[in-house]
Amino acid sequence: MSDCLFCKIAAGEIPSKKIYEDDLVFAFYDIDPQAPVHYLVIPKQHIPSCAAITPENSAVVARCFEVIASTAKQLGISEFRVVSNCGKQAGQSVDHLHFHVLSGRDMTWPPG
Ligand code: 5GP
Ligand code: ZN
Question: Which atom of ligand 1 is the closest one to the Cα of 5?
């Protein structure tokens, strides 16, 4: 999608601190970290949010979770939280599916 920040980051048109990339998935550090380790894993394909996952596009979501596991291992973190905000009330500010990976501090539950 031409007007999407994360499509542009995945395409390398906007710079980011990249952790991992393959043909389907891109992982990069969040610009405003909320934990000592905070990065985002996104599909390169434009999917607006978790609410738009379907049988036709869910393979790339599974791939995102494989990358979450492999990048966590690569970064040496074994305890972490995965978050995907879906919709404004839930805190979504970028309308391209992304999974936050947060680690390196105690987490509270329930989340705010
Ligand atoms: P959301 O608020 O949609 O759950 O998460 C969007 C995340 O993207 C936020 O944590 C925000 O800090 C991050 N973000 C927004 N713009 C940029 C950017 O240009 N580069 C990077 N690396 N992260 C960004
Ligand atoms: Zn997009």
Answer: 19
Tens-digit pLDDT profile for residues 7-27: 999 999 999 999 999 999 999
Cβ-Cβ contacts under 8 Å for 25 (sequence gap 6 or more): 41, 42, 43, 44, 60, 63, 64, 67
Residue nearest atom 4 in ligand 1 by C-alpha distance: 92
- Residues 87 and 94: their CA atoms lie apart, in Å, by 9
List residues with catalytic annotation.
Answer: 98
Q: Which residues line ligand 1 (CB under 6 A)?
A: 5, 16, 28-32, 85, 91-94
Measured from the Cα of 84, ligand 1's closest atom is 4
* Nearest ligand by distance to the CA of 98: 1
Residue pair 18/27 in contact by the 8 Å Cβ criterion = yes
pTM for this predicted structure: 0.98
107: left (phi over 0), alpha (psi -120 to 50) or beta: beta
